[in-house]
Amino acid sequence: METGAAGQAGGGGPAAAAAAAGEYWSEALKSFLDHIPVSSVNGAIQPSPSPGKHRFLDSYTRRPGPGGALIRFWSRVRAAALEIRLDGSVPDAIDSMYRSGVAGAVIVDDVRTSFGKFVDRDIGFVEFPSLVLWAIEEFDKLGSGAGDKNSDFLTSLKQHPQIAETKIAWLAKSFLWEPFFPVRSHDTLFHAMLLFSKHRRINVVPVVELMNSSVIGFVTQNAVMELLLSSSGLEWLDKIADKQLSEFRFANTTKPVSVYSDQTLADALHILSKEKIGVAVVDRKTSCLIGSIQCSDLYQLLDDSSLFRNRKTLSAEEFVKLKSKDEDISTENSSASGGQNVLSLRTGQRITAGLPVTNRKSDTLKQAMEKLTASRSRCSFIVDEHGRVEGVVTARDIISVFSPPCMDSRIDGGTFFSAALAQTGCRVEHGQMIQNS
């Protein structure tokens, strides 16, 4: 069965010609993406302080334990990745990621080989925001009087066994882990994009040297968009990227979640724990967007514990204003370039301090990509001419546009497609990509 443009251009009038042309551009784009190695993506290979060796955090950071004795951190950095042990506690994992300044970590389990030695097995990926939001939800279930009002965020969590003794392993039951689908540096960009577009819970794809080997870097959604933007000007890429947002289904169907500016920070965090994209903060009288609260803002609850303690009285608008002051402090880390960790906990200054990323439906997909990559944000709110929120576009929405759902049955792709499709839970039949039931 042939599904290529050449097989359909023989008749059918303008509609058939347009369909054939569209398939041609889709195939051209797919072919291009399938020739770009993952190693070309910014952050896919990150420098290690001691290549080929483990660098243990306890070599640098020790904390006083019972009786004044020093205890060791249970997590460590191996190559470019922070590792969290399966039997570690949630508060310690939050602490480790916060101290290391990373927004995510690899979950490892020690297994014994047939030679009697222990080797590391990477089994998952966990994000800092997921743990923080889970901990806050659990803390609030304990009642409004729970915790010492003078305690910081982590100390408050550790005062309650229900939270302090919860192990990372247990959180797998709540789906707080992200699936661990690594790629190798010589795999292609299309491979990573398929993983992003077909697994809604994947925001980061680890890169390994060889299967079952150390994580040497990460592919993020924003890094993928940066690489796509570097090809701006190529006709078959611009055929998609120069379309207005109004032409895409997600711009008309994806509804943003929001809170009124006078609602509390606690209200916004509760919604964020369910949605994980971003919460629009709108003025109750005008319905205009005045700010947003996103997962990337949560480190501030550890920077300033008063935000956590006052979350039930602090308004969403007040938090937005405090956040904008923090973003004004420095622009040094506003970009992931120059060797900065692409999983940096602090994403840097927004395009316009204090305001969320926004687009109009008349903007092009390329303009949305440029704003998202510049801000390192995962979503842009679509607003009308009065500033009222109409929709939202996410980094995953954009990547999915460049990941064609249909393939020519004559294109096999060898081990690339077999590996990529197996991990995305799909197969190809007669040129169509079908999701396994």
From TrEMBL:
Residue intervals of the CBS domain: 176-234, 351-409
Keywords, ordered alphabetically: CBS domain, Repeat
Alphabetized Pfam families for the sequence: CBS
Database matches in InterPro entries: AMPK_gamma/SDS23_families, CBS_dom, CBS_dom_sf
Record PANTHER family: AMP-ACTIVATED PROTEIN KINASE, GAMMA REGULATORY SUBUNIT, OS01G0633400 PROTEIN
Protein name: CBS domain-containing protein
